[in-house]
Backbone:
């Protein structure tokens, strides 16, 4: 069960106050930016692997250089694919941790509200 989202009609002052007091976490959107930046780094690695394989193949004319360049290309692209999967898992872990934090906060607020209702029904004396 997902926590209820706050309405979009909040003032910018209230949003700013939430950010200053850590009532609202900005880590979710920041993790998305970090994820795409990391994918860019992995893409640069993949392009460098392709360039290294082509350079290795063109360094010497012959079958031996082609036989060496092909495994370098395949292994490098497999490593890049593994890096993409590991980076995705790393970022998903952090998103999950912060979602757990948001859910716990919502549960705490619901518990406090239930406790306040129960106290008001019984009265302050018990």
Residues:
């Amino acid at each position: 069960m997902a926590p209820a989202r706050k309405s979009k009609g909040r003032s910018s002052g209230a949003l700013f106050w939430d950010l200053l007091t850590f009532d609202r976490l900005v880590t979710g959107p920041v993790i998305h930016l970090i994820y795409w930046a990391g994918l860019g780094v992995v893409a640069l690695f993949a392009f460098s692997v392709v360039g290294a394989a082509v350079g290795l193949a063109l360094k010497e004319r012959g079958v031996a250089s082609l036989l060496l360049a092909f495994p370098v290309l395949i292994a490098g692209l497999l490593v890049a694919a593994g890096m993409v999967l590991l980076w995705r898992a790393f970022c998903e872990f952090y998103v999950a941790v912060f979602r757990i934090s948001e859910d716990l906060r919502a549960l705490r607020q619901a518990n406090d509200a239930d406790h306040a209702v129960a106290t008001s029904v019984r009265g302050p004396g018990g």
Q: What stands out?
A: Helices lie at 12-20, 27-59, 63-122. Residues 29-118 form one domain. The chain is about 80% helix and 0% strand. The two ends are 32 Å apart (CA to CA).
